[in-house]
Design brief:
It is found in: Cell membrane. By secondary structure, this protein is mainly α. It has 13 helices and 2 strands. About 70% of the residues lie in helices and about 0% in strands. It starts with a helix and ends in an 8-residue tail after the last helix.
Length: about 280
């Protein structure tokens, strides 16, 4: 039964990863034959100023988008957990945006944040605030992408909602008998019981943020290098510059950075993640 899964892992992960490793040691311009050059591509990374720039943009986006995504999903889950007449309808409505194609979402946000006729700037005008050039201002482009990223928290919110409904009511009853109010119950019961889900969402969020590409590719050109994500720079070197070997070296760098961040997250989880089984 495990054979299809193993086969899929080999075909879609191990083989492409191995090919990327091999190509990273070559000078390959797509139209020419690969030429082995050893570690030259990796040495070039350390002297390429755009590597540091693109990593900085990606880290900045991750630093803002991952926490806001987790907080947004958690708040949405807590709201959806309230028993209302149209609760199921609200669950569907909040989840739908997360399954829309990323291009469609970006088109919607381009319309909402358009500096001339966007609904957001129209709202700012009506309350007497200055309008903003969201995607052209270097100081606003990444926060704008973070705002766009909140559009897709519905999937994580459903995971939080399922975990919240799985918490035993007796825990809240015991906390209430001890005199804990809603905020104290949230800190002492809800957060610890949801911490494994927070860990999962954190890891997935870090991996997704490090792979950000579409936003910078589709709407980041007007802000110069302020939206030069690492994946976008990798794409430019591979398909615009025809440097597949160097792009593969960049891909390996991104892979190991993401791997290290994920390992650090799991390593630190013993300090803040609560597992009920450990208490037994």
């Amino acid at each position: 039964m495990a054979t299809p899964a193993i086969l899929g892992l080999v075909v879609f992960f191990v083989l492409p990863l191995g090919a990327a490793v091999v190509i990273s040691f070559t000078d390959w311009g797509l139209l020419s034959s690969p030429e082995f050059i050893g570690l030259d591509n990796y040495r070039a990374i350390f002297s390429d100023p755009l590597v540091g720039k693109s990593l900085g943009v990606t880290f900045y986006f991750a630093l803002l988008s991952v926490p806001t995504g987790i907080i947004g999903a958690l708040l949405m889950a807590l709201l959806l957990n309230q028993k209302t007449r149209f609760n199921r309808l609200f669950v569907v409505l909040f989840y739908l945006p997360s399954i829309l194609p990323v291009v469609a979402v970006i088109v919607v946000w381009l319309w909402l944040l358009d500096p001339s006729y966007g609904l957001v700037n129209q709202g700012l005008e009506k309350v007497g605030l200055p309008t903003l050039d969201w995607f052209s201002d270097p100081n606003l482009v990444i926060p704008s992408f973070v705002l766009m990223n909140l559009w897709g928290v519905g999937g994580s919110a459903l995971i939080f909602l399922a975990a919240r409904r799985g918490i035993s009511p007796t825990l809240y009853e015991a906390a209430s008998l001890d005199g804990a109010g809603p905020w104290q119950q949230f800190k002492a019961v809800t957060l610890p019981m949801l911490s494994p889900v927070i860990l999962f969402t954190l890891v997935i969020g870090i991996i997704a943020a490090m792979q950000t590409f579409a936003q910078g590719f589709l709407i980041g050109s007007g802000s110069g290098q302020s939206a030069l994500f690492f994946n976008l720079y990798l794409y430019q070197r591979a398909f615009q510059g025809g440097q597949m070997g160097y792009a593969s070296a960049l891909a390996m760098l991104l892979f190991f950075i993401t791997l290290i961040l994920t390992a650090i997250t799991f390593r630190s989880s013993s300090l803040w993640v609560f597992y009920e089984s450990r208490q037994k």
